[in-house]
């Protein structure tokens, strides 16, 4: 039988303690059945060879009062009508009755050895069941806490709303739970908590690859993403509105910072998800929007599937890491969100589509990335003409920067400057190269 | 071992997999009131003077207490002199029998004084808690004064010895001013219980009044999770019980009928976390200055590496585990990560990465925040649960009022009993009769400086009035006044059966980490039951 095998393996071989709840979870049986399974195992094993397994029991019922009080009992009327007087009288006639007449039921955990003693403290016993079995007597029952904490981490993926029934949990028809991504699994163990920082980046770096739906999103269409339910399943209305407002705010910034990102057309495969997910990281403190999308819970599955691509990327990342430092000091700006507004003018003048790559990594919880952008270079050739060329080059960006945008204004001044600066071409080309 | 089979689970599992009928929990009718909700962010100011609160409280309660006093004393003639009503404290004339209403102010020798703190320049740390503000050796140092917007009047007289008062209570006092300029009190009146709503009155939906299905409301306080494994075994048993894994089979007639599926809601009344998260200042210590100094660097020299997240993680796990089955109302306490001054605002859901999935979405704009399945509420808190009006605090109010009173020196010493749980219930009763849930705020309990409203005044009388984190479980029922109060217990006892006036269930909820007790209140009768969780310590002593 499956349960016997499980118990033999865990209790006898691995020498773990097994509680009825951990058994119930492992075998997917109701808790009440798990109690019986534990009892049977305990009895059978000890019949074969005494003292192989030990048990703890839970006794529920009504305990005898520590020192028998005369009023103890099942008096139904525990009401004490306090003297109705306005000013805290110093004598309360009925006060003796009030504390003892309330029915006190007890649920007590006891070791096997103490079972009879414990039972003798009860006036009436409602149920006794096995709580746990373990290979040796427990010097400290608190060990059992670790078993249940293990449950919490081991079966964190199981939705209690769906699986509760099979464990025998009391169901509730009215549970309200917010939709959205599942909460993150709790940290694996207390001991690992300090180390949790380290593995996180790798988990997060798989985020883009985990969103197959978004892979196909054309950057040119990205601006419609707030309307597209697929592109970001858990986008709340909050982020919608904020991204809209950001879109409004964005044009004001156009001229300054991003004019150098000319004609960026990120490579389709990875760029779009990466840009979208940068938005996830933006933590809007003011609106108290919770970053639940931040830690999707599928670390394992996705990691396995994407290990290959991740390795590749990590290698590349290593190469470029040294360029990254410049951005480290940037503070996340709550309002800023990637807003892409490609307009016809922004299309690269070159008819040949240029493939650009983009890499995203995470350092200390912040998203960093590199992307390949096309930069214009204006040089004077041998014959003295100014020649404008486009070259692919790498540059780093951080989470809060919007995706590269092209300004109509960018080309015009440059062209003009090139013409006007015929005589001083050297200086212009010097700045242009930057 | 012969009777083991009677207990249900001490038998091998039956061969055939019997399909278990899922047990469903009774629905919970819940409507939290946002009485103590402070405006967020910009709307919260700390520059106002506290005097407004006393002014508002007096303005609100003076009519009530004057009504009570007028009913009792109007036309009363004592020793040939007619009792006269005086509007303002300063209008009391010497030798004249009169009554006046005002706010009680008590000057106690050990009371923390902000001016002392300022002169010592250590006002940045919380005054360490004291067991009492009174000086039992010299009760004469205690001065009780009655004040209103005009001035103060010192109260005196033997009557006050049998009366327990605390700062902030609104009373009417009958007496006469003596040669010293003190007011000899011969009787006082309190506002008494506020009007009590009918059951279901506060809720829009009219409840399942047709089906008389009795449920239970569970109260627990002082979970005191410290993150070490030692404190959570009873918590595990509590979890098992609430989820229905453990319980009482009920086929024995002696067994309690307490099936946990009847519990419709769990209310956690403060101090869910143990002391290790916050500073140790809260622990009762003798050398206050030393503690205050020690607490300072801890509080401000916050070190992320020294911070232990384990308690809050365990609390989150606990909540996330029970929430799929039972709705939870969580109140902060003085040891929880919330603001310290009352009303404490709910613990932010960002502290609960798992449990917050069950909480209500953040309110948008002007919308009233809706009640979440997991509701992190204020302390004190007021709301309608199963139609009953519930008013509760995590215990600071009772603890503090108790410091004003010298129960210890009077009757309890006679009993040779150090436990003051009786006084605690009596303090709770007094609060209801004072119509003020936290009378000593803002005097000795830190409080938000309310300016427009004093929410601590009980506008309506609750059906269940609870205080968390008390040393012992205690309960009592008090009744409001019959319209014409007769001084005599016999009338009250007779009236008990067919009495339909206000009736309040008082609950002093013990600390779970000390007693392991969960309090269940029946939703139909307001009867109270206790479920105690524990570990049998039989053999441990032998080691």
From TrEMBL, chain A:
One of the GO BP terms on file: nucleotide-excision repair, DNA gap filling
Q: Name one GO cellular component term.
A: delta DNA polymerase complex
Pfam families registered for this protein in UniProt: CDC27 (PF09507)
Which stretches are tagged as biased composition: Basic and acidic residues? 213-228, 307-321, 379-392
Locate the compositionally biased regions of type Basic residues: 365-378
Q: Where in the cell is it found?
A: Nucleus
- Segments carrying the region annotation (Disordered) are 64-97, 176-434
Leader sequence range is none
Bias (Polar residues) occurs at 82-97
Q: Which domain of life is it from?
A: Eukaryota
- Main location group: nucleus
| Keyword field | DNA replication, Nucleus
Name any one GO molecular function: DNA-directed DNA polymerase activity
Amino acid composition bias (Acidic residues), ranges on this chain: 277-295, 322-338
Protein's name in the database: DNA polymerase delta subunit 3
| Species annotation | Penicillium arizonense
Which lineage?
Eukaryota, Fungi, Dikarya, Ascomycota, Pezizomycotina
UniProtKB/TrEMBL annotation, chain B:
The record, for CDD domains, names: MPP_PolD2_C (cd07387)
Ranges for domain DNA polymerase delta subunit OB-fold come to 49-188
Name any one Pfam family assigned in the record. DNA_pol_D_N
Q: Belongs to which family?
A: Belongs to the DNA polymerase delta/II small subunit family.
From its record, what is one biological process in GO terms? DNA repair
PANTHER family, per database record:
DNA POLYMERASE DELTA SUBUNIT 2
Keywords of this entry: DNA replication, DNA-directed DNA polymerase, Nucleotidyltransferase, Nucleus, Transferase
Q: What InterPro entries does UniProt report for this protein, alphabetically?
A: DNA_pol_a/d/e_bsu, DNA_pol_D_N, DNA_pol_delta/II_ssu, PolD2_C
Protein name (Swiss-Prot/TrEMBL)? DNA-directed DNA polymerase
Highest rank taxon of the organism: Eukaryota
Instruction: Identify the main location.
Output: nucleus
Q: Where is the DNA polymerase alpha/delta/epsilon subunit B domain?
A: 217-474
Localization, per the record, is: Nucleus
Name the segments for region: Disordered.
1-22
Q: Which GO terms describe its cellular component?
A: delta DNA polymerase complex
Its Enzyme Commission number(s) read 2.7.7.7
Checking Gene3D superfamilies in the record gives: 2.40.50.430, 3.60.21.50
Which organism is the protein's source? Penicillium arizonense
Q: What is the lineage of its organism?
A: Eukaryota, Fungi, Dikarya, Ascomycota, Pezizomycotina
List the catalytic activities from the record.
Answer: DNA(n) + a 2'-deoxyribonucleoside 5'-triphosphate = DNA(n+1) + diphosphate
Which Gene Ontology molecular-function terms are recorded? DNA binding; DNA-directed DNA polymerase activity
EC class of this enzyme?
transferase
């Amino acid at each position: 039988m499956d349960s016997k095998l499980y118990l033999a393996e865990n209790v006898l071989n691995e020498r773990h303690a097994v509680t009825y709840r951990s058994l119930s979870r492992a075998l997917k049986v109701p808790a009440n059945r798990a109690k019986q399974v534990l009892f049977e195992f305990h009895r059978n094993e000890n019949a074969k060879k005494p003292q192989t397994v030990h048990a703890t029991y839970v006794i529920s019922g009504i305990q005898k009062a520590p020192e028998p009080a005369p009023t103890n009992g099942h008096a139904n009327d525990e009401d004490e009508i306090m003297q109705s007087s306005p000013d805290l009288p110093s004598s309360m006639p009925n006060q003796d009755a009030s504390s003892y007449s309330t029915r006190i039921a007890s649920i007590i955990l006891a070791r096997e050895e103490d079972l009879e003693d414990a039972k003798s403290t009860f006036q009436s016993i409602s149920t006794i069941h096995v709580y746990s079995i373990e290979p040796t007597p427990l010097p400290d029952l608190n060990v059992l806490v670790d078993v249940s904490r293990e449950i919490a981490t081991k079966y964190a993926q199981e939705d209690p709303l769906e699986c509760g029934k099979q464990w025998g949990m009391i169901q509730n028809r009215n549970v309200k739970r917010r939709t959205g991504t599942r909460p993150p699994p709790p940290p694996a163990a207390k001991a690992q908590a300090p180390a949790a920082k380290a593995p996180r980046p790798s988990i997060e770096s798989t985020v883009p690859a985990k969103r197959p739906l978004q892979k196909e999103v054309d950057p040119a269409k990205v601006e419609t993403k707030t309307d597209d339910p697929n592109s970001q399943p858990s986008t709340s209305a909050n982020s919608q509105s904020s991204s809209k407002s950001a879109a409004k705010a964005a044009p004001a910034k156009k001229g300054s910072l991003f004019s150098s990102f000319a004609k960026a057309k990120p490579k389709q495969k990875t760029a779009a998800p990466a840009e979208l997910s940068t938005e996830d990281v933006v933590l809007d403190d003011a609106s108290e929007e919770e970053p639940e999308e931040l830690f999707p819970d599928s670390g394992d599955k996705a990691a396995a599937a994407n290990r290959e691509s991740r390795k590749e990327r990590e290698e590349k990342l290593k190469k470029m890491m040294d360029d990254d430092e410049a951005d480290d000091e940037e503070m996340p700006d709550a309002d800023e969100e990637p807003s892409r507004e490609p307009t016809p003018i922004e299309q690269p003048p070159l008819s040949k589509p240029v493939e650009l790559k983009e890499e995203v990594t995470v350092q200390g919880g912040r998203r960093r990335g590199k992307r390949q952008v096309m930069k214009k270079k204006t040089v004077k050739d041998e014959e003295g003409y100014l020649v404008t060329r486009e070259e692919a080059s790498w540059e780093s960006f951080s989470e809060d920067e919007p995706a590269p945008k092209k300004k109509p204004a960018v080309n015009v001044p440059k062209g003009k400057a090139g013409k006007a600066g015929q005589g001083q071409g050297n200086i212009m080309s010097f700045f242009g190269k930057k | 071992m012969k009777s083991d089979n009677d207990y249900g689970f001490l038998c091998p599992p039956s061969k055939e997999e019997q399909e278990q009928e899922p047990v469903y929990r009774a629905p919970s009718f819940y409507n939290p009131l946002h009485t103590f909700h402070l405006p967020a962010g910009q709307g919260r100011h700390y520059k106002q003077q506290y005097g407004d609160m006393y002014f508002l409280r007096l303005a609100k309660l003076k009519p009530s207490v004057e009504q009570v006093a007028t009913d009792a004393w109007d036309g009363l003639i004592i020793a040939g002199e007619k009792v006269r009503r005086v509007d303002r404290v300063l209008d009391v004339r010497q030798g004249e029998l009169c009554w006046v209403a005002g706010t009680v102010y008590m000057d106690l020798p050990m009371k923390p004084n902000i001016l002392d703190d300022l002169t010592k320049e250590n006002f940045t740390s919380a005054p360490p808690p004291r067991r009492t503000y009174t000086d039992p050796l010299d009760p004469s140092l205690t001065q009780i004064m009655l004040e209103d917007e005009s001035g103060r009047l010192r109260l005196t007289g033997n009557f006050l010895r049998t009366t327990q008062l605390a700062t902030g209570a609104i009373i009417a006092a009958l007496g006469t001013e003596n040669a010293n300029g003190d007011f000899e009190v011969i009787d006082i009146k309190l506002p008494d219980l506020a009007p009590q709503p009918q059951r279901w009155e506060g809720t829009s939906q009219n409840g399942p009044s047709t089906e008389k299905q009795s449920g239970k409301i569970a109260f627990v306080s002082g979970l005191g999770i410290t993150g070490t494994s030692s404190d959570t075994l009873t918590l595990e048993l509590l979890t098992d019980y609430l989820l229905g894994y453990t319980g009482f089979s009920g086929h024995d007639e002696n067994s309690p009928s307490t099936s946990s599926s009847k519990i419709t809601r769990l209310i956690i009344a403060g101090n869910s976390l143990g002391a290790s998260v916050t500073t140790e200042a809260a622990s009762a210590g003798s050398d206050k200055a030393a503690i205050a100094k020690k607490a300072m660097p801890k509080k401000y020299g916050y070190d992320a590496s020294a911070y232990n997240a384990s308690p809050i993680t365990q609390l989150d796990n606990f909540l996330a585990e029970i929430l799929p089955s039972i709705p939870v109302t969580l109140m902060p306490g003085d040891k929880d990560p919330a603001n310290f001054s009352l009303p404490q605002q709910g613990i932010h859901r960002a502290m609960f990465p798992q449990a917050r999935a069950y909480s209500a979405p953040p309110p948008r704009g002007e919308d009233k925040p809706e009640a979440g399945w997991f509701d992190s509420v204020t302390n004190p808190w007021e709301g309608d649960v199963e139609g009953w009006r519930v008013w509760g605090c995590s215990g600071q109010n009772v603890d503090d009022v108790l410091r004003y009173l010298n129960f210890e020196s009077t009757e309890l010493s006679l009993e040779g009993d150090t436990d003051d749980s009786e006084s605690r219930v009596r303090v709770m009763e007094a609060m209801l009769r004072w119509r003020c849930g936290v009378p000593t705020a803002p005097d000795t309990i830190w409080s938000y400086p309310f300016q427009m409203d004093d929410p601590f005044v009980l506008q309506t009388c609750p059906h269940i009035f609870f205080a968390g984190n008390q040393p012992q479980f205690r309960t009592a029922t008090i009744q409001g006044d019959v319209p014409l109060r007769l001084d005599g217990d016999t009338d009250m006892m007779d009236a008990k059966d067919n009495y339909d006036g206000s009736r309040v269930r008082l609950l002093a909820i013990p600390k779970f980490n000390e007693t392991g007790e969960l309090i269940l209140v029946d939703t139909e009768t307001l009867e109270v039951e206790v479920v105690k969780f524990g570990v049998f310590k039989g053999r441990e002593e032998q080691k």
